[in-house]
Amino acid sequence: MPAIVLIGAQWGDEGKGKATDLLGDRVDYVVKFNGGNNAGHTVVIGDKKYALHLLPSGILSPGVTPVIANGVVVDIEVLFQELDALIARGVDVSRLKVSANAHVITHYHRTVDKVTERFLGKRQIGTTGRGIGPAYADKINRVGIRIQDIFDEGILRQKVEGALDQKNHLLVKIYNRRAILVDEIVDELLSYADRLRPMVADTSLVLNQALDAGDTVLFEGGQATMLDIDHGTYPFVTSSNATSGGASTGSGVAPNRIDRVIAVVKAYTTRVGAGPFPTELNDASGEWLRARGFEFGTTTGRPRRTGWYDAPIARYTARINGVTDFVLTKLDVLTGLETIPVCVAYDVDGERVDEVPVSQSDFHHATPIYEELPGWDEDITGARTFDDLPKAAQDYVLAIEKMSGARISVIGVGPGRDEVVVRHSLTD
């Protein structure tokens, strides 16, 4: 199974890092193909917890080559901070490769992100303020700075001048901020060159050669399907393609080389930031899920919005991504509930709708139609086979599997890396 794409099935924070870790000893390369440091993976290894934001979670697996591919926007200061934090904990980071074609997040991207979001007021998108969107906007507007530009001072200065000529007018005349000096940006980026140079590669070539040699490559998506710039709840989305198609454009590996698409889905639903969320619980049940699941952002610390499992979203994800396997996480969080509601369809203006509405307005006003499933009280964190689970927990998994459009191959029953039930191999 040489090429596997791993993506989020909901609005992010589903536990993709754990799924990546589960595949770690069978994988030779782990590729981050989209996003930046606006999303996080939390990986638990023994009694140690690692929070990663920009780095692929495969960096924690010995022998694996982690790759930051061309579809990523890179805050180099954050990259070095994460690397230094891992080095201090004894993690070998020497294998990391960074695409020469990846775009760079600069100080002015972060500044524009924050002031623009504040300017929007009640129409805010809910960005993390880390410059992700403005960096992607510069990429599309063809005024972006790429990793390779840092090694040519003349080109770098020319590109920074071009970018700031426009942005300083915006900052000074619209947002009443000081102009950003070209020299301060150029000097900062040049200061990274010596340390960065050994990491930089033609990662598309590296990955295709790895596949030719029979190595296994895992493409790890940041964010999730419902935050995809094209297929998510626009405009309340991220600025990149977080779906399986983004693995090809974001890495330079053709789609016909991808063999399996694994979607990670939480046993309930969460999202961070603004935007529609049909099953959201603004009551004691929502607080209970948040506390039990420790639903606070890895990157931001923001409390996540919580709600029940949404089967139409899972079906949508299966269709958009060509999902072959679901990894269901945090089933243990539901322990102790007498009954567990599952959204099976929506009510939109008095009509039943079984799929995610194409109209954003309809989706925003959709009311979930629930089916109640029996709960369980038994502790499931020690379960290692499907038969170890209580009958009600088994029935819950089988019921949502039937509704979701692809098989549930792995079930997370606790936060630890070994706290999983494997029903079907993810690599066979």
Question: Can you give a write-up of this model?
Answer:
The protein is an alpha/beta fold. The chain has two domains: 3-93 and 202-422, Adenylosuccinate Synthetase, subunit A, domain 3 (Adenylosuccinate Synthetase, Chain A, domain 3, Alpha-Beta Complex), CATH 3.90.170; 103-197, Adenylosuccinate Synthetase, subunit A, domain 2, CATH 1.10.300. It is built from 13 helices and 20 strands. The chain has helices at 16-23, 76-88, 107-120, 132-140, 153-174, 182-191, 193-196, 203-212, 245-249, 284-292, 311-321, 360-365, 391-404, and strands spanning 3-8, 29-32, 41-45, 48-52, 65-68, 73-74, 97-99, 103-104, 200-201, 217-220, 260-266, 269-271, 305-307, 309-310, 325-329, 339-348, 351-353, 367-374, 407-412, 420-422. The protein is globular.
Number of domains: 2
CATH class of the largest domain: Alpha Beta
Distance between the termini: 7 Å
CATH topology of the largest domain: Adenylosuccinate Synthetase, Chain A, domain 3
Number of helices: 13
**Gyration radius, to the nearest Å?**
22 Å
Broad shape:
globular
Report helical residue fraction: 25-40%
Q: Secondary-structure map with pairings?
A:
Layout: E1 3-8, H1 16-23, E2 29-32, E3 41-45, E4 48-52, E5 65-68, E6 73-74, H2 76-88, E7 97-99, E8 103-104, H3 107-120, H4 132-140, H5 153-174, H6 182-191, H7 193-196, E9 200-201, H8 203-212, E10 217-220, H9 245-249, E11 260-266, E12 269-271, H10 284-292, E13 305-307, E14 309-310, H11 311-321, E15 325-329, E16 339-348, E17 351-353, H12 360-365, E18 367-374, H13 391-404, E19 407-412, E20 420-422
Parallel strand pairs: 1-10, 1-11, 2-5, 2-10, 5-7, 6-8, 7-9, 11-15, 14-16, 15-19
Antiparallel strand pairs: 3-4, 12-13, 16-17, 16-18, 19-20
